[in-house]
Amino acid sequence: MEASVLFFLTSGLFLGWALGANDAASVFGTAVTTRMIRFSTATVLCSVFVILGAVSGGGGAAETLGRLGAVDALAGSFMAALAAGFSVYLMNRCGLPVSATQAIVGGIIGWNLFTGTPTDSRVLLKILATWAICPLLAAVFSAGLYLATRWAVSIFKPHLLRLDAYTRVGLVLAGAFGSYSLGANNIANVMGVFVPATPFHALELGGWFSFSGTQQLFLLGSIAIAVGVVTYSGRVMSTVGKGIFPLSPISAWVVVVSHSLVLFLFSSQGLERFLVAQGLPTIPLVPVSSTQAVVGAVLGIALLQGRHNIRWRVLGKIGVGWMMTPILAGLICFIGLFFLQNVFDQPVQRAGVHRAAAIFAPPPGRPAMDWKIPPRPGHRPGMAARIAPRP
Amino acid sequence: MEFLKSLSLFGRTRSLEGKVDAFLDRLSQSALIFKLAIKTYLGEGADPAFEEKLRQVNDLESQADALRRAIETELYSNTLIPESRGDVLGLLENLDSIHNLMEGALWSFSIETPAIPPEHGTAYLELVEMVTLCVEALVLASRSFFRDPARVNDNLHKVMFHEKEADKVSTRLKRAIFASPSELSQKSHLRHFVELIDNVADRAEDVADRLAIYTIKQKV
Fold first, then answer.
1. Where are the domains of chain B?
2. What are the structural domain ranges in chain A?
3. What is the dihedral of CA A148, A149, A153, A155, to 10 degrees?
């Protein structure tokens, strides 16, 4: 594999790291802040199950993202992922739980705008609709599950200490399920843009084990997510777990389960096959935001318990973060692609006229402007020349 | 790893539940023996039967102390009920203080041997009966706190009722003591013992107030 390929993949790994620090924090945030599960345990569990989910069930959501905009050149994928990762990182610095999904969609649309590739409005609408449905669905699930749990506790009357033990086991199981669902659903955000331009070839071991190029990509991305979880997820965990609404351990469990169910619904190919077999309408396999699901779930419980304890200010900041993220990512991607193509001379699209070039095209009859910066006399070849693919 | 640890938690949890129940049993038994001890004292004075009951309360208090410490250590070393362990320990320590008050009152009877005139005997008995009912209701409320928080208030209401009754009896008794023709020193001595017994009910009421707050915090 060429060094340039590895270099381009680093932006995906950076986005993976940002997603791990941000979205994955959402899974165990409530469990860690209620001190039911130690941070170290949460990070190990989350990492393992994110990798499992990404490698074994990450295909469905990646397909939908691929249809939104098939970023077909590695340099383009690099910039889309870098823009998304950087946007998430910036929001993380403010302690805001934003969505890596929104960031990568923003990045892809930035690439579409730059290259003049039409954005599939049906797919875009589908994705936008899930952004609204995801927190709503999580809120409905959490409110229902909360009422059911409260009823069960009042009927079975477990001892306070035993209830604590049940809650811990429940949090571990739900967290593992949530991490698996997160890996399956959100790996598309991290590595989805690299799928059309994957540099990996399928591996066959003795005819009984095959590891496709996409799966190898997903493994790499999920390891990056795991690194993000371990190194930088503490701050967002605190915002999710305590910032919006003070949660009891049982409410924390309800939040984790609701979030996991929502992510599972939007990523399970098995469920889709089952629904098709039963002749029922299917749920779109779309990468949804883990953070939105958790925030929706917390809000569901908060509204049920009365609105007086909700910190609307924090919620408002999160909402602004959600709106800013795709716009920021799209803008960074557009500007970054411009530099990548014209300064570093990297092809950001496999074929076709670049929209930016078309926008700045000269009037008919006048010579075209060369957007490349001419090398100075005695100038050594820069990064663009060094990493450019050989003819 | 954490999952297996959680499964092993169930064994430890069961043992800890047993310790909490045992602690509450000790307090309830002490209250009953406290009542019998005062009854014995009013009938026979500080005779061996009274001293035996004092020894029993003393032993129960020591056992309750040991249980409380064991519960405290296990709760913190295994980071159990992180959100409410402070409340649980506060509750156990406050309940233990009631134990100490009963034990202290019996020691005072044993050491100071107050001469209680027969005409005040019934009122003393009535007072100790109310105090015991108060502690019993508090123990029931505490058990509910661990198993069925929705029922805590039913028992707390009884604590408040019996405490008020104990106050009425103690006020009536003090008036009767100071209306009697005895020496002022004896009146003061008798009043001191009324207060020693009544303090148990007052303390139970304070603990009940705290328990009400703990229960509100305990919501799912």
1. 2-217
2. 3-356
3. 20
How far B67 CA lies from chain A's nearest CA (Å)? 16
Nearest chain A Cα distance for residue B134, angstroms:
24
- Which one of A161, A172, A248 has the shortest CB-CB distance to B80? A161
Within chain A, which residues score under 50 in pLDDT?
A: 352-363, 366-376, 378-391
B16 contacts on A by Cβ (under 8 Å): 161
pLDDT (0 to 100) of residue A33: 81
Residue A369 is predicted with a pLDDT of: 39
What does the pLDDT look like over B182-203, one tens digit per residue? Answer: 899 999 999 999 999 999 999 9
Contacts of B220 in chain A (CB under 8 A): 146, 149-150, 153, 248, 250-251
For chain A, list the strands marked E by DSSP: 203-205, 209-211
The H or E element that residue A252 is part of is helix A249-265
pLDDT mean over B160-167: 96
Q: Which residue has the higher pLDDT, B87 or A77?
A: B87
Pair A137, A262: CB distance under 8 Å = yes
Which residues of chain B from 20 to 39 reach within 8 Å of chain A, CB to CB?
Answer: 20
| Whole-number Å distance between alpha carbons of A296 and A132 | 10
Three-state secondary structure string covering B33-92: HHHHHHHHHHHHCCCHHHHHHHHHHHHHHHHHHHHHHHHHHHHHHCCCCCCCHHHHHHHH
Asked if the Cβ–Cβ distance from B10 to A154 is below 8 Å, we say no
Average pLDDT of the residues in B52-64: 96
What does the pLDDT read at residue A10? 87
Q: For residue A240, which phi and psi values (nearest 5 degrees)?
A: -70, -40
Which residue out of A32, A157, A164 would a mutagenesis test of the B interface target, given it has the greatest number of B Cβ atoms within 10 Å? A164
Give the CATH fold of the B2-217 domain: Methane Monooxygenase Hydroxylase; Chain G, domain 1 (1.20.58)
List the 69-108 stretch of B: residues with Cβ below 8 A of A: 79-84, 88
ipTM value of the model? 0.82
Q: Which among A4, A341, A383, A391 has a CA at the least distance from the CA of A197?
A: A4
The CA distance from A241 to A295, in Å, is 10
